[in-house]
Amino acid sequence: MVIRTGKSITYSEAQFFLSPNHPLQRQYEALRAYFVEDLASGDAAQRFGYSPGAFRVLCHSFRHDPDKREFFRTLRHGPQNAPARDRVRELAVAMRKRNLSVYDIQRELSETSHPISINALSVLLREEGFARLPRRRDEERPLSLKPEPAAVEMPDQPVETMEPVTIAEVSTTPEAEAIRSYRGLWPVAGIGVDPGPALGDRIRQRFVAMLAAGLQSEVELLAPRLGVTAAQGVGYRELLRVVRGEWTLDRATRTAIAATAALARRQRTFHRRDPRVRWLEWDDEPSLVAGAAAVLEEAGWTS
Question: Taking a C-beta distance cutoff of 8 angstroms, is the pair 259, 234 a contact?
Answer without folding.
Answer: yes
